[in-house]
């Protein structure tokens, strides 16, 4: 069943526009990308952290108190960072804390390591966390500081290892390999993070531009629709009432002019109502349309036959209202320009699929292409009104008369 227009309007009003304060909605893709990066970092860092922890625990039996403190200082912030990444809260804070604490712990490593341990092939447990420190910087710091961290961290580790090995030749070879590997891997990690964030920012920007373009187009369309509706209202009711008042001769004509003026004032007063222009969507049958057209004939002081054909023919109220108003305008044109000569109206139901209204006269006719853009009787009151409810309007006119065919069918 059709969606409620009020529900659609309410849902659309909740979509933020670019430049609003609801930045969490404007950065929807960016925030999701940050969440994905945090989860991936948590998974990868958990594996490296577990490997480093097992290696550290194996050395605690022969380590002193300082080494135990070092393990606690490194792994407590790491655990806090992993939890923050998983729950999605405080990611930047705890990631930045671990990045700083780990760099300081790495720089202090020569004071913790056993001076007798000078085996170049045995990498200390703290080495496994070098790139974890890099990804922590990626989550916490600006881009320039991220690349600085990725470049500094491997060299700090390399210097610490050389100090541990007293700059021996054996340590130079293995340390150079470790430094180059961690440096390349760290730069790749930072670059991937920057690329993913740039793509997400591009998506958010494109989305913002699309919403802005649609908002502008929707506003322009609404303004144009309101302008056409108001122009049609002025032409149908106000101008018609003024013409009727000017031509009123006799008590009956004056009463009709007063009634038309009252209706025009009522419609002007209700222009801000949601359904004042085209009615509701309650189904309307062919009989009601015939009644409305006969009332229009009476108000316009015209004498014509309204012929009813077909079955019941139910259509939405808005479409029926548009048909009646457009047909009223066609009748008014026939009265004004053809003096109601040969005026004939046919209302035909096309089963349950729609209704058509035909207004014809035998007047002198007119050239449709010669109608000026400022003449709203046909452009706004007939063509634009029927187009507004997805209906059709066709006008054929020559020296033998004019025929206006209005229709609405279910799609």
TrEMBL record:
InterPro entries: HATPase_C_sf
Bilayer-spanning residue ranges: 36-59, 65-87, 94-113, 125-143, 171-196
Keyword Transmembrane helix assigned: yes
GO MF term list: ATP binding
Keyword list, A-Z: ATP-binding, Membrane, Nucleotide-binding, Transmembrane, Transmembrane helix
Name this polypeptide is given: ATP-binding protein
Organism per entry: Microbacterium aurugineum
């Amino acid at each position: 069943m059709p969606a409620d227009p009020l529900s659609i309007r309410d849902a659309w009003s909740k979509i933020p526009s670019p430049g609003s304060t609801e930045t969490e909605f404007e950065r929807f893709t960016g925030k999701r990308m940050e969440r994905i990066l945090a989860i991936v970092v948590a998974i990868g860092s958990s594996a490296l952290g577990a490997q480093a922890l097992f290696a550290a625990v194996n050395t605690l039996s022969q380590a002193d108190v300082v080494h135990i403190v070092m393990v606690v200082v490194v792994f407590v912030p790491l655990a806090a960072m992993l939890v923050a990444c998983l729950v999605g809260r405080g990611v930047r804070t705890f990631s930045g804390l671990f990045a700083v604490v780990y760099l300081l712990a790495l720089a202090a490593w020569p004071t913790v390591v056993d001076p007798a341990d000078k085996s170049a092939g045995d990498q200390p447990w703290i080495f496994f966390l070098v790139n974890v420190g890099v990804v922590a910087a990626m989550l916490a710091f600006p881009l320039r500081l991220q690349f600085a961290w990725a470049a500094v961290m491997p060299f700090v580790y390399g210097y610490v290892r050389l100090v541990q090995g007293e700059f021996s030749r054996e340590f130079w070879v293995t340390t150079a390999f470790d430094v180059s590997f961690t440096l390349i891997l760290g730069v790749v990690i930072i670059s991937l993070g920057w690329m993913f964030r740039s793509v997400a920012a591009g998506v958010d920007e494109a989305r913002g531009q699309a919403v802005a373009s649609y908002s502008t187009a929707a506003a322009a369309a609404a303004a144009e629709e309101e302008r056409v509706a108001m122009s049609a209202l002025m032409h149908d009711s106000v101008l018609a009432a003024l013409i009727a008042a000017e031509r009123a001769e006799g008590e009956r004509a004056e009463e009709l002019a007063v009634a038309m003026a009252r209706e025009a004032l009522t419609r002007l007063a209700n222009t801000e109502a949601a359904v004042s222009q085209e009615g509701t969507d309650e189904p309307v049958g062919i009989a009601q349309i015939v009644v409305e057209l006969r009332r229009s004939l009476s108000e316009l002081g015209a004498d014509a036959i309204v012929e009813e054909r077909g079955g019941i023919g139910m259509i939405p109220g808005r479409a029926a209202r548009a048909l009646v108003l457009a047909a009223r305008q066609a009748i008014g044109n026939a009265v004004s320009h053809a003096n109601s000569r040969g005026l004939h109206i046919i209302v035909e139901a096309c089963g349950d699929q729609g209704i058509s209204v035909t207004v014809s006269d035998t007047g002198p006719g007119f050239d449709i292409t010669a109608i000026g853009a400022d003449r709203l009787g046909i452009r706004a009151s007939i063509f634009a009104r029927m187009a507004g409810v997805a209906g059709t309007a066709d006008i054929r006119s020559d020296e033998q008369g004019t025929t206006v065919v209005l229709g609405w069918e279910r799609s």
